[in-house]
Amino acid sequence: MASTADSSVLPAPSTRPRVVVIGAGFGGLAAARALDDVPVEITVVDQRNHHTFQPLLYQVATAGLGVDDICYATRGIFQRQDNANAIQGRVTGIDFDRRVVATEEGLPLPYDHLILAIGAVTADFGVVGVAEHAFGLKSVAEAIEIRTHVLRRFEAADRLARNGDPDGVAAATTIVIVGGGPTGVEMAGGFAELIDGPLRKDFPDLDLDRARVVLVEAADRLLGTFAPRLGHHACSRLTARGVELRLSSTVERVEPHAVHFADGSSIAVDTVVWAAGIAANPLARELGLPTGRGGRVEVDEHLRLPDHPEVHVIGDLALPPAEAFDGPVPQVAAAAIQGGRHAAEVITAAVDARRNGAIAEPVGPFRYRDKGSMATIGRNAAVVELPRGPKITGFPGWVAWLALHLVMLIGFRNRANVLVNWAWNYLTYDRGSRLIIEPDEPEG
Amino acid sequence: MASTADSSVLPAPSTRPRVVVIGAGFGGLAAARALDDVPVEITVVDQRNHHTFQPLLYQVATAGLGVDDICYATRGIFQRQDNANAIQGRVTGIDFDRRVVATEEGLPLPYDHLILAIGAVTADFGVVGVAEHAFGLKSVAEAIEIRTHVLRRFEAADRLARNGDPDGVAAATTIVIVGGGPTGVEMAGGFAELIDGPLRKDFPDLDLDRARVVLVEAADRLLGTFAPRLGHHACSRLTARGVELRLSSTVERVEPHAVHFADGSSIAVDTVVWAAGIAANPLARELGLPTGRGGRVEVDEHLRLPDHPEVHVIGDLALPPAEAFDGPVPQVAAAAIQGGRHAAEVITAAVDARRNGAIAEPVGPFRYRDKGSMATIGRNAAVVELPRGPKITGFPGWVAWLALHLVMLIGFRNRANVLVNWAWNYLTYDRGSRLIIEPDEPEG
Questions:
Q1: Cβ atoms of A31 and A73 closer than 8 Å
Q2: DSSP A444
Q3: CA nearest B63 in A: which residue?
Q4: What is the pLDDT of residues A76-97, one digit of tens each?
């Protein structure tokens, strides 16, 4: 009975516009949260049941953090948001005319507004052997794969050393990271610290002075999107930590136990991490969306599909018009968050207009505002670049990096756990997550 | 040059007796640590690269703790013990006459003293379908399997409810735990709290009043090894939390979506956890050891093989003579730790005697001393039984349980992380590790 009286004040749930958000990354979450007070019914669908804090994936790969520290159950994020629900599902198709998302699980998701936020994947740029023999770093599953593989190779090196196989030991204790952007720099610093600290103590019989961490970059400097001074700073700090830099160097192919360069040289190595670039999620093309540069979807000034203004494409997947930024909008978390908020703003205006029977309030076009960028090189060292502001390096930069990442993590529990682990790692030089977790072999 | 002078004081490493410890559980670790000051060369070999704190496995399965909280890299445990080294390896055979352990990895491990501490595995007692369709709980891999499966079934239930399939929902939101010992009681309490707290909020569209946690026990009471009063306490607390008890009930067979009982009744259920018993690791039989009751290896009063006094068998694997305890020695952590220390004592006496050219000091026979047992029923509730001492229940028992488990965990970092997570779980009723971590599907 109360519902009849209420319905005059508030539309019943079924009459509220349905917003479907595909992807629970930074962009999708920002969009759904920004619609908190809007009378819509939001469904966030992601192939995983959790949000992954991608900026710290490299710390999982280098045994500094556990999986549970950087993941957060998506349903949990929306427990207190009454107009939103999260489900795990793999999107297999979108009927843009009938406005229905199809999932592998057989659950159709009809929508009035759609936000596509499915991000990016590792791009191999056609280099032979990368897909088969190199590791990407876009999910916790991949981070755990890297960690497991490296720890297994060090166990193998220990045996190879006892059997008198120095070449085998060299390949097993070498890690080649391709790509000198923030991810590559952070991985190289993380592995240098893992090997020089805990693994050196774990493997007293191995001569880890001969272990190598090699960072390969096609350009003649690191951190190409940062100011040259910061790239040089990263070079000198990584070199001081024992990382070998191989600048102006192009990978020609990756084999199971070697990486070959365009200049004819090669390195015997069992572990190659590919951090040389990303491409928009290929699912976009499979869904029939017109894709442009880097597989990204060309959108209008409101990040909408030109033919379907009810479909917003945000984050790494979107290619906003040139006016949105001085140059192409970078594929970074801040752009995804800003894009998600912009999509929410446009949807809010449309919903308000429909309720009031008026024309939607005009919303200004999407503009990406650069909040700066940062990368850590490891212990006490990071580079921070603020737009038109100061460039910070060394310890102050590192503290700024730590603080920002702690704040950006979702949930008090994850923050507390990360803080405990960082304090532990810092004070003891240890990396507590040196675990090889494998499915049990069948018995008998 | 210095080594020549030194060798008169201390035998060179190669002349020190070699101790191989197979298994990095409670028993193996206790033995290796107790040999800290003894001039031997210890190698601890385990199929995993980490120690697993088995008493808290059920908390990983019920999403209260992460894997990294309860595992500790074995090499890290022995970083500061100069006479010990840890390796990951799968033992495939032992040549008891030539005194060499063979591993799958091809590394032979010669020994002068061997400590076999390979523990126990889940025993299905021949019940049809248990091996195929029920989950055991002896490793973190199994704990993660249970967690993943339950969370997936709740996601499925959410879809089945939308599709109007109440029977499917019922099976997907039912968990049957077989075995009313400490593990079964703790799992049942853990799942009741997981469902009643976070999952109820995660799945607002599901009617979780109809979700079931069923604890099955063949005897007419829970916690058969505890005093009857404590078993009754566990019954009433679990019932108050919504757990259905099915006492005096025998499982006849397990199917993918049902469990059938000897009395002809059955429950439609997608998740069956088998906590009804353990058997000694079948590897013992494969190694050619004579096994007795429960697959355990019969040993002498010093936990040695009668034919090979240089081989000690400890922990869940060993069946010490009747004199060692009032009844058979239970397969619990305390017995494994005491057995490990006893083996170390016998080896120390032998090493001392050899160095001094004397006959070994006589060591008293192994005696298991019961330190008591405890089980938690969940939030604010546990049962604690001290030998010839008081029986503690409720909040004081729970605090004692928490304190003991924190102290027994290895490493400050793990303790700090567990404390953070327990505080979080207690204050918020949340379970932060509700994560489905799956290998990435191949793209394209």
A1: no
A2: -
A3: A68
A4: 999 999 999 999 999 999 999 9
Q: Are the Cβ atoms of A85 and B411 closer than 8 angstroms?
A: no
Write the DSSP assignment of A68-136 as a string of letters.
HHHEEEHHHHTTT-TTEEEEE--EEEEETTTTEEEETTS--EE-SEEEE---EEE--TT-BTHHHHEE-
Secondary structure (3-state) at B254? strand
CA B332, distance to chain mean position in Å, is: 9
Nearest CA in chain A to B121: A443
Report how far residue B55's alpha carbon sits from residue B57's, in angstroms, rounded to the nearest whole number. Answer: 6
User: Which pair of tokens denotes residue B304?
Assistant: 């040695």
Contact in structure between A377 and A226 (CB atoms under 8 Å): no
Helix axes B412-428, B394-408, angle to 10 degrees: 150
Contact B440 A141 (CB under 8 A): yes
The residue from B41, B132, B145, B186 that is catalytic is: B186
Give the nearest partner residue to A432 out of B158, B413, B433, using CB atoms: B413
Q: What is the DSSP string of B211-224?
A: -EEEEE-SSSSS-T
Tokens of A58: 């490299």
Query: Tens digit of pLDDT for each residue in B210-262?
Result: 999 999 999 999 999 999 999 999 999 999 999 999 999 999 999 999 999 99
CB A187 within 8 A of CB A137: yes
Q: Please give the distance of CA A120 from its chain centroid, rounded to a whole number.
A: 8
Query: Which residue in the set B87, B420, B421 is minimally distant from A155, CB to CB?
Result: B87
Give B 176-215 residues with CB within 8 A of chain A: 198, 201-205
Decide if B424 and A413 are in contact by the 8 Å CB cutoff.
yes
* Interface probe, candidates B148, B437, B438, B441, chain A, greatest A C-beta count within 10 A: B437
Which pLDDT score, from 0 to 100, does residue A357 have? 84
pLDDT at A4 exceeding the cut of 50:
no
DSSP for B99-129, written as a single string = TEEEETTS--EE-SEEEE---EEE--TT-BT
A430:B413 CB<8 A: yes
Chain A contact probe: residue of B78, B154, B417 with most A CBs at under 10 A: B417
Clarify whether B186 is annotated catalytic. Answer: yes
Residue B2: is its pLDDT beyond 80? no
ipTM of this complex? 0.92
E strands in A251-340: 251-255, 258-261, 266-268, 271-274, 278-280, 297-298, 304-305, 308-313, 318-319
Residue with tokens 């959108």: A299
What percent of chain A clears pLDDT 70, i.e. is strictly above it? Answer: 96
pLDDT in tens, B146-172: 999 999 999 999 999 999 999 999 999
